[in-house]
Design brief:
This protein is of the alpha+beta class. The chain contains 12 helices and 12 strands.
Length: about 325
């Protein structure tokens, strides 16, 4: 598993919140859900994005926007339209005055009122948005999300992807297993967009991503990520990649930005932190899965790097 796969692995990628919005001006939605990642595609019409940091971003049909949480932002028909709806954590919908949305159906219909997974203020609205929100936090995905801008926009003229149209067709279906189908489509759309974006960042892309294309460091990174429980050493990793220890250490540090064993420690502890979120996982089991010889060894590394013990981390989740 690599960092992109880790973003979509396990329960973090399942049960994502998906909704279709049909809108006619004036409309404005304030997003305060603090979700770690949200994908928004414009199927028809246009939309105006107002990030918390300021500025205005216009989206047209076919454009895709990826929002990195927990920053708040507004999506509207115009920068001058005041928010009519606030989306809070857990996808709770309220008016700006804090009233439940169901009491203000003249402004925005409750989810589902306009059809399967569909809401908005007009069933024939000229603007159609598809929004997919990943609500679960993940230590593995945070290594990826930290490298993204607060709002990443991919224009339809630069990246033509049929998945947006396919997702628009599938989101309104209510067939058996439909949630799984939609989750997988959202995953494909997201990972395709991120791969496209990272591939065009050149030197600005994170080191671990650039390293995947290197004939020596790429295999080394993949081995560490796919089998973190193995008793890795620089000598073993060098032997597996067919180069000397010195050459591997130098090249790895140059491309990734940290030595191989430091990278491995960070990856192991990110995996451990995600596993600790699972209520039935014991510290001993987590230690074995991520390559530590004992719970004590994992606890020591966790406390040294993250500043809290695994027990303290789990209690704070």
């Amino acid at each position: 598993m690599d960092t992109l796969a880790g973003l979509l692995d396990g329960p973090r990628a399942r049960g994502a919140f998906l909704v279709r919005s049909l809108l006619t001006p004036p409309w404005s939605i304030r997003l305060r859900d603090e979700s770690p990642l949200t994908v928004c595609a414009v199927v028809h019409g246009e939309a105006c994005v107002l990030p918390e940091a300021g500025g205005v971003i216009w989206l047209e049909a076919g454009d895709l926007a990826i929002f990195r949480g927990p920053d708040h932002y507004t999506v509207a028909d115009s920068a001058d339209t005041a928010p009519q709806v606030h989306i809070l954590p857990g996808q709770e919908c309220q008016t700006p005055e804090g009233l439940p949305l169901g009491l203000m159906t003249d402004l925005m219909a409750p989810p589902g009122a306009l059809g399967v997974r569909t809401w908005g203020n007009d069933a024939t609205g000229g603007t159609e948005l598809l929004t997919g929100t990943y609500e679960a936090h993940s230590e593995v995905s945070s290594r990826l999300l930290a490298t993204l801008p607060p709002v990443l926009v991919i224009r339809h003229s630069a990246w033509e992807n049929p998945l947006i149209g396919f997702l628009a067709e599938e989101i309104v279906r209510d067939s058996p297993g439909q949630h799984a189908v939609l989750d997988r489509l959202l995953d494909l759309l997201l990972i395709g967009a991120l791969r496209w974006w990272f591939a065009r960042q050149d030197s600005a892309a994170p080191g671990w991503y650039r390293a995947h294309g290197d004939p020596v460091v790429g295999p080394a990174v993949r081995m560490l990520q796919s089998d973190p429980a193995r008793a890795w050493t620089v000598a073993l990793l060098a032997r597996e990649t067919g180069v000397s220890r010195a050459a591997l250490a130098r090249r790895f540090t140059e491309l990734v930005g940290e030595p191989p064993m430091a990278f491995l420690t960070g990856w192991r502890l990110a995996l451990a932190a995600d596993l600790l979120r699972e209520p039935d996982a014991t510290l001993a089991a987590v230690a074995r899965r991520v390559g530590y010889s004992s719970p004590f060894a994992l606890s020591s590394a966790f406390k040294r790097v993250r500043g809290v013990s695994p027990a303290e981390f789990r209690a704070a989740v």
